[in-house]
């Protein structure tokens, strides 16, 4: 049996993490692909607190817990448990935001992929495919403000300094798919 493949995606909102996973499933039809979202832990906390699942509220909870416990890698233990429990051939850890959160994927000999796109393109994508309650009617200024929230500030830095691969997603879906094919080939993932 093949060994599990672990991939972590690091990307600013709207860069194409979800599309990356969709394309990966298409390109690896004989492999079971599972995505674990780090943001699901923050969503669970907001749900318990009966608070709106907005990007700002997620940032408040994440920043408060990281600060209260003086631990930017506070999710590492639950993330590692989820990675170990995953029943798939290819496991995608989605949405790392802090350098300390890279460790679980490195511990499992995983690959960190930085998916990048220009802010204007990312804004259009978020408007078309809003995930959070506060994204539906946001302006470009609000989008830029959200990019500067504490839990988002370090994303680009992680991508530029800690990623094993970088994929640009400024063009068509077809062009993005070609870049993902190259990534798979370069990392021996078939």
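^ Assign residues to that structure.
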């Amino acid at each position: 049996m093949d060994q599990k493949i672990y991939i972590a995606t690091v990307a600013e909102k709207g860069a194409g993490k979800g599309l990356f996973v969709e394309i990966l499933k298409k390109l690896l039809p004989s492999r079971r692909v599972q995505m674990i979202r780090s943001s699901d832990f923050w969503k669970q906390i907001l749900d318990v607190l009966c608070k709106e699942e907005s990007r700002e509220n997620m940032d408040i909870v994440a920043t408060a817990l990281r600060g209260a416990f003086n631990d930017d890698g506070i999710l590492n233990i639950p993330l590692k448990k989820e990675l170990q429990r995953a029943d798939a051939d290819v496991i995608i850890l989605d949405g790392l935001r802090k350098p300390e959160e890279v460790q679980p994927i490195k511990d499992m000999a995983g690959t960190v992929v930085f998916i990048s796109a220009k802010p204007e393109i990312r804004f259009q994508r978020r408007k078309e495919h809003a995930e959070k309650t506060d994204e539906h009617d946001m302006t470009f200024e609000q989008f830029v403000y959200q990019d500067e929230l504490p839990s988002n500030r370090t994303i680009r830095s992680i991508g530029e300094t800690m990623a094993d691969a970088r994929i640009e997603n400024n063009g068509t879906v077809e062009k993005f798919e070609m870049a993902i094919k190259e990534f798979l080939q370069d990392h021996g993932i078939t």
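The chain has a mean pLDDT of 90.
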